[in-house]
Amino acid sequence: MTITEDIKYVGVNDHDIDLFEGQHQVENGMAYNSYVITDDKIAIFDTVDAHFSEEWLANIKNVLDDAKPDYLIIQHMEPDHSASIGIFMENYPDTTIVASAKAFTIMKQFFGCDYAEHQLVVKEKDTLELGKHTLTFVAAPMVHWPEVIMTYDSYAKVFFSADAFGKFGALDVEEDWACEARRYYFGIVGKYGAQVQALLKKAAGLDIQTICPLHGPVLNENLDFYLNLYQTWSAYEPEDKGVLIAYTSVYGNTKKAAELLAQMLVDKGCEKVAITDLARDDIAEAVEDAFRYDRLVLATTTYNGDVFPFMREFIESLTERNYQKRTIGLIENGSWAATAAKVMRQLFEKSKEITFTETTVKIMSALNEESTTQLENLAEELCK
Ligand SMILES: Cc1cc2nc3c(=O)[nH]c(=O)nc-3n(C[C@H](O)[C@H](O)[C@H](O)COP(=O)(O)O)c2cc1C
């Protein structure tokens, strides 16, 4: 794949992966992107997962023929991008590895070797001349690891963005960008909104025509769309008006209440109503929807004086990612001492700008007239 006349794609698609980063479902696989700039000097951006080293080396050979790369730029040390450094250096032993000081430290930890004789340590604003192409390094600590550097090619106006602007999904599968990029962002980068905001400020000062991330497609049209979404996500602003109802249920009564509330909201003309069973559906997708919409309803059974485990896991997945600026309604169920609402409220104690609805629905085992009226009140409040 050609990005510009002298920037070529040499990445690989992974359809064998079961869980990305040990937890994220990736039905459409994953792409590990890598790029080659051929100029007076030849630079390669990042390596790929260890299972694909040979395919990646063949892709490089295809572009370079017998030419030898001068630089291997390591922007990010997660092994899906760094695990082929060793085999690369066996094949091209004279290459200089370009990375941050922190990246070399992590390299030694992972692979027992930091190529001390072949290092070029770079930091914010350092430049590397390849010929026509001048690369300027942009430090992006904690987007989403500490060693990350990104790279701006001022000749081609290409921004190599490491894991930022990436998404789940291999490149040979056609799918909507925003859904899988949002799930990727909130699953993996979501905690680091402040750091992403700092990066966006730096990016705003660059004339960028193409974004080359380490996962997902190369972005070269309508870049404002992607930049604006990253602005919204990293500022923890809701992207769309809508309500996510997330529930757990043992015997089906809380589920029934959640579904009834969804119907009430639809009947009232609520812009968008999404509903998810936290025990059965992908929690990462629920996290994505919770950040996407401006309102959230949590419905759960009381469980040994606590909330049902999947609900706790879900709420902790939100709070650890700085969930904020949202309205939350609560539905609790219990057969003798319903305490789930109190526990859920406590779980958000440290969260900023959370508004709880005045109505909290209390179900004692099964919906009755009183709790159904509370549901109606909650629906009314959420649609005000
Ligand atoms: C293992 C277990 C522990 C429970 N602990 C409590 C409890 O501490 N307090 C309470 O009021 N109900 C407790 N319950 C009862 C459920 O919360 C209650 O029956 C609820 O109505 C179930 O709602 P569901 O039909 O949506 O599953 C427990 C149920 C189970 C299975």
UniProtKB/TrEMBL annotation:
Keyword Iron-sulfur appears in the UniProt entry: no
GO MF term (any one): electron transfer activity
Keyword annotations: Electron transport, Transport
InterPro entries per UniProt: Flavodoxin/NO_synth, Flavodoxin_dom, Flavoprotein-like_sf, Metallo-B-lactamas, NADH_oxidoreductase_modular, ODP_dom, RibonucZ/Hydroxyglut_hydro, Rubredoxin-O_OxRdtase
UniProt xrefs under CDD domains: flavodiiron_proteins_MBL-fold (cd07709)
Record-given protein name: FprA family A-type flavoprotein
Lineage, uppermost ranks: Bacteria, Bacillati, Bacillota, Clostridia, Lachnospirales
Organism: Dorea formicigenerans
Entry keyword Transmembrane helix: no
Signal peptide: none
Cofactor dependency: Fe cation
A Pfam family annotated for this UniProt entry: ODP
Occurrences of domain Flavodoxin-like (ranges): 243-383
Family the entry assigns: In the N-terminal section; belongs to the zinc metallo-hydrolase group 3 family.
PROSITE patterns reported in the protein's UniProt record: FLAVODOXIN_LIKE
